[in-house]
């Protein structure tokens, strides 16, 4: 999942080239110019929860622990605190992860090296 917040002060790409801009994103591609080719854009990496909260608020000044947002009828509301497991409670299962395929490839390569008829002295 990828979440982005882009704050800019212009609408066309040419006017943004020299204006300062901020991007908050939940993925690690935060080098200058990556998202909009503007060398004055600074990218910041945040959790998906924080990036989503800032995107909903539309400002970097929003504090999701204390500030409110407005619904379509103008009623204030606060975001719920995120919850869930950061890490699996039973640890990582190698069979269910992406390690399985690279591990099988590594084992096959090792077997090929061991079983290959090669003269190591030549």
Structure write-up:
The protein is built from 3 helices and 5 strands; from the N terminus they run E-H-E-E-H-E-E-H. The chain is of the alpha+beta class and 122 residues long. The chain has a 3-stranded mixed sheet with strand order 1-2-3, covered by helices on one side. Strands 4-5 form a two-stranded antiparallel sheet. A hairpin with a 5-residue loop joins strand 4 and strand 5. The longest helix is centred in the last third of the chain and has 16 residues, at 100-115. Residues 8-12 have low confidence and may be disordered.
Helix-and-strand structural type: alpha+beta
- Main beta sheet: strand number and arrangement? 3 strands, mixed
Number of helices: 3
Fraction in helix: 10-25%
Radius of gyration: 24 Å
Categorize the overall geometry: elongated
Mean pLDDT: 75
CA-CA gap between termini = 52 Å
Q: How many individual β-strands?
A: 5
Name the helix and strand elements from N-terminus to C-terminus, one letter apiece: EHEEHEEH
Low-pLDDT stretches are 8-12
Strands in their spatial order, largest beta sheet:
1-2-3
Hey, roughly how much beta strand do the residues contain?
A: 5-15%
Quick take:
By secondary structure, the protein is of the alpha+beta class. It contains three helices and five strands, in the order βαββαββα. The radius of gyration is 24 Å and the shape is elongated.
Set out the fold topology:
Elements lengths: L3 E4 L5 H4 L4 E5 L15 E5 L2 H10 L11 E2 L5 E2 L22 H16 L7
Parallel strand pairs: 2-3
Antiparallel strand pairs: 1-2, 4-5
């Amino acid at each position: 999942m990828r979440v982005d917040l882009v704050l800019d002060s212009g609408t066309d790409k040419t006017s943004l080239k020299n204006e300062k801009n901020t991007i908050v994103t939940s993925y690690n591609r935060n080098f200058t110019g990556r998202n909009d080719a503007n060398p004055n854009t600074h990218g910041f990496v945040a959790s998906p929860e924080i990036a989503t909260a800032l995107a909903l608020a539309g400002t970097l000044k929003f504090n999701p622990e204390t500030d409110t947002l407005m619904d379509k009828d103008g009623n204030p509301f606060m975001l719920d605190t995120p919850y869930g497991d950061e890490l699996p409670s039973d640890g990582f299962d190698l069979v269910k992860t992406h390690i399985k395929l690279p591990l099988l490839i590594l084992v096959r390569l090792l077997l090929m090296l061991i079983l290959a008829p090669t003269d190591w002295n030549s």
